[in-house]
Automatic annotation (TrEMBL):
GO terms for cellular component: membrane. Residues 192-211, 254-278 are annotated as: Disordered. Keywords: Membrane, Transmembrane, Transmembrane helix. One of its GO terms (molecular function) is oxidoreductase activity. PANTHER family: BLL0505 PROTEIN (PTHR43032:SF2), PROTEIN-METHIONINE-SULFOXIDE REDUCTASE (PTHR43032). It comes from Streptomyces liliifuscus. This is Molybdopterin-dependent oxidoreductase.
Amino acid sequence: MPRLHTPPTSPRFWRSPVRGPWFTSVLGVVLLGGITALFMTGLLSYAAYNPDLSPVNDKTPDKGLLGFYLFAWPTHPSWLYRLTQGVHVTLGITLIPVLLAKLWSVVPKLFALPPARSLTHALERISLLLLVGGVLFEFVTGVLNVQLDYLFPGSFYPLHFYGAWVFFAAFLVHVVLRAPAAVRNLRRMRAGEGPEEEAGGEPDFPLVSPRPAEPTVSRRGALWFVGGGSLLLFGTTAGQSFDGPLRRTALLAPHGGADPGSGPGGFQINKTAASRGISARETHEDVWRLVLTGPAGTVRLSRVELLELPLHSSALPIACVEGWSTGDQWWRGVRLRELAVLVGYDGDAAPDVMVESLQRRGAFRRAALRSNQVRDPRSLLALDVNGEPLTPDHGYPARIIVPAAPGVLNTKWVARMTFGDL
């Protein structure tokens, strides 16, 4: 045990024999690749919401130059968002043990005095503080969003979006400043040499303890322990992106385990009819009407009248921002492009559309779809799924299903569709 009068600002306070440049460098290299992939897939997820299309899709209206990369989200392949968001969430959860080990390995540096020895050292310390704060914020908000479904003191979207940019800026600065030393340490390790100690850092505040305690585990053993934790989280989370037996392995995921029922509608859901204030009376076929608006005027259609229109089938998955998804379900309904024809458009030139739901609570009561999504022949106003009418929780009497779109854009309980420039 360190002596009581030894403060944490002294290297002698930190006695673990596991800490050292080699251990920190290995973890840093893993995080370099993993966090870069997280950031890129996170940007893709943001683009998939088509925030430049309509204010109702844009949860970060003050993003300015941060939205420089945005592009019209494609509909091919149909599993695109299922892949990118599944990787984003699963990788983020898998990296948690690596992240915690990395923070533990460098925590002595947060107490080193004086705070800055040079301009380069000052930049490194500032980037480290922003890096630690930013990464904890991003991982905590991300896990809460996955596990607790938007329980935040504010909106998840701007918190996570702006937090990601702050964190990644600090991450880039830190990588530029520390990457050379990390690479040198890994090369020395391969050559069988000992690591150099913090060249360019605090020479009198080494990561290697000057008074190490008796070892209980080697550094390689500690890495195996961290890797085992990551594999455990991966094995109990990744299955939420698959159907069948693999989903049952996702014990730590809200949408893991058994499907919520059996039969044609027995697949995963996020928002139930009850949770969104949908009553059986307003969705009854004698009451509910779909309102279509376009240059030719307004058309109102009952579910019976929709079923009399030409119907088409599409095999499409559902994929949500929380990382879970379903396999392909067989949807049957009216093509969105053919609904555009009913209000005055040519199907091949169908425009953007604003879709409004009956739901009274929750985000994305209104959502916009781009023209390329409307024109895709697989995009449907679905009436049936897997050979049976939609269940209330799957959006009865009608819902949107679009290839490669995030789940919240596949609006359920559709009440109105307005075609035209948004």
